[in-house]
Amino acid sequence: MIKRSISLNCDMGESFGSWKMGNDSAVMPHIDMANIACGFHASDPKIMSDTIKLAIAHNVQVGAHPSYPDLQGFGRRSIPLSVEEITSMLIYQIGAIKGLCESHNTELSYVKPHGALYNDMQKDMTIFEAVVDAVSSFNLPLMTLAVTDNQKLLDIADRYDVPLLFEAFSDRHYLANGQLAPRSLPNAVLGSEEEILNQVQQIVQYGKVRTIDGFSIALDADTICVHGDNPQSIRVIEKIRALINGEGSSG
């Protein structure tokens, strides 16, 4: 029996100029939420606009996917910034994609930070609060990692009246505290289709996940992140969609 309704989200619009990344047109029909890059780690105004139109065509929610200003490093490098700098750079990026959404008569639905900024805000509550402050300017929910103890995050978000969407990952190993295993660790990324589908099934049906060192921990997620970089990953997304819809299982 399915534990609860869980949506699928995916990072989208991460091409830049003539450089193409991902397979957005193949992924979009299978997801519920598109996290669209806002120009600081990938994307440009035309790609942002085209990705919004693609999301509209498939009735997919549009989310802002802002990052540190790090095009060369794809937003995966931490950049030491003040609280005011973080809040301002996020308002800049979210405002840009909100304007593009309005130009297509659709709404921006939520915000999910990208890469190093996403990781940093899980570890540093000062950074998390700077992010929440920026998101509160737009009256939108913030997507953040579902961990074993979300209370600190909820307390900060409540002060700014920002709803939180808790996210799990289909293809990443977890540490015992519910944080993602760093990519520097061996096997941080799940390697096989079977592993990915087993993890999704555990999250959806039981609200649990097995950690990289073999423990089982509770994980209460609203949405699951998938990645669609190649034809093999598209097939896995299709199977995840069926699993969430109750049309199959990993076994």
TrEMBL record:
The keyword rRNA-binding does not apply. SUPFAM superfamilies: Glycoside hydrolase/deacetylase (SSF88713). Its EC number is 3.5.2.9. GO terms for molecular function: 5-oxoprolinase (ATP-hydrolyzing) activity; ATP binding. The keyword ATP-binding applies. NCBIfam families: PRK05406.1-3, PRK05406.1-5. Belongs to the LamB/PxpA family. This is 5-oxoprolinase subunit A. It comes from Vibrio brasiliensis LMG 20546.
